[in-house]
Amino acid sequence: MAKTVKAKISINGYIKDLASFFALNGKRKKWIESGSTNVDMSDPVAELAKHLHPGLITSKIVKVTDETPSTKTFTLEPTDGKKLPLFYAGQYISVKYSIDGRTTTRPFAISSSPDLAVKKNQLEITLKKNPGGYVSTFVWENWVEGATVLFDGPHGHIYYNGLRDSKHVVGIAGGSGVTIFRSIANDMLNGSGRPEKMTLVYGSSNASDIIYKDEFDALAAKSNGRISVIHVLSGDVPADWSGETGFITADLIAKLIPDYKTASFYVSGPAALYDAIEVALDKLSISHPNRRIECYGESANITRNKKYPQDNAGKTYTLTVLFGVDKKEIPAISTETVAVALERAGLAVDTQCRSGECGWCRSKLEAGSVWQRPESDGVRARDKDSGYFHPCSAYPTSDITVRVFTRI
Ligand code: FES
User: Fold this and answer.
1) Which numbered atom of ligand 1 lies nearest the CA of 358?
2) What is the pTM of this model?
3) How far apart are CA 335 and CA 308, in angstroms?
4) Which of 17, 140, 349, 390 has its CA 20 to 30 A from that of 357?
5) Mind listing the pLDDT tens digit for each residue in 19-60?
6) Which residues surround ligand 1 with Cβ inside 6 Å?
7) All domains in the chain, ordered by first residue
8) Count of alpha carbons within 13 Å of 119, Cβ hemisphere only?
9) Can you name the residues that pair with 233 across neighbouring β-strands?
10) Which atom number of ligand 1 is nearest to the Cα of residue 356?
11) How much distance in Å is there from the Cα of 110 to the middle of ligand 1?
């Protein structure tokens, strides 16, 4: 008797399930018919990723501002519908050029604050003229309002991190290296999460070379003591000059910054500045975690570097380039980087920092030897063991064979 009841319950349940299933077909049909034909295929995560990493951006110059007789600020705005990526004050972009059929890149610090990018979808870069310079000449002749500029980014590691850095940041700038501090100073007045205090020690050759003088004065005035700028002139000193003179040394830093021992140092400027400031920071026993040194860009004259093997100067070697199954032999001048040799031959390897730090141009040295500039040698120990190097900061010291992986 009990067995019969159990069987009836199971059969009833089965028939109910079947009925519900067939009823579902009808409901489904109605739902489909009443649904929208506009299907939302957007993917918010992919959209965010695209916004953070938009890749190559096509922009136009919307404004050119003369800062000094030899320095201009260019305001760029995307024309390809892209939003400028978010960046930290202190980072840089990599500008792509095609000059006379040769492709190359140059890193330029973003001189505007992140705020301008968020509010107006614009950013600024400030360039100093380098008479006779391959790219500088092109820029001065062609970068006018309306001209197109291609770039990607942001890149770079000089930006404030409250977990890593002290509340007091000491900026040491030389020449156009001051651009990152304009971005940082403007950003400091925009909200929290920035340094509590910044003291900028800014070295220029002459008073007429000082960039953003009035803007820094105005920022300091409205910062409630958070921003101070100390100018140091190393060349001609005007009769009415009341600032510092000479070069930025350990003694000068100790005199100007009483709490230097606990401050974080950001250094940005030409190669000559790095050598001097490294010595000064060593003398002041500033630990390496408290130093951030931005040295993007190539050395204008590598033979001035005391560590460069001087007997290597004036030679031309043969560079055998391997890319996939292609093989080509080109000349390589001993005082030019391997990256420049590749660019001269129309075989440009992709670059960003052009100083050996970021690893973007990482290539393999299959044969021969190079001298890698030690100040910004970012080649990892494991890479060195396996023969990898950074062509943007390496100079040939023999005939070499190089395998490249990225091309532009
Ligand atoms: S471009 Fe950055 S390491 Fe060569």
Assistant:
1) 2
2) 0.82
3) 9
4) 140
5) 888 888 888 888 888 877 777 777 888 888 887 888 899 999
6) 351-354, 356-361, 378, 390, 392
7) 48-155 (2.40.30.10), 168-294 (3.40.50.80), 310-403 (3.10.20.30)
8) 6
9) 204, 245
10) 3
11) 18
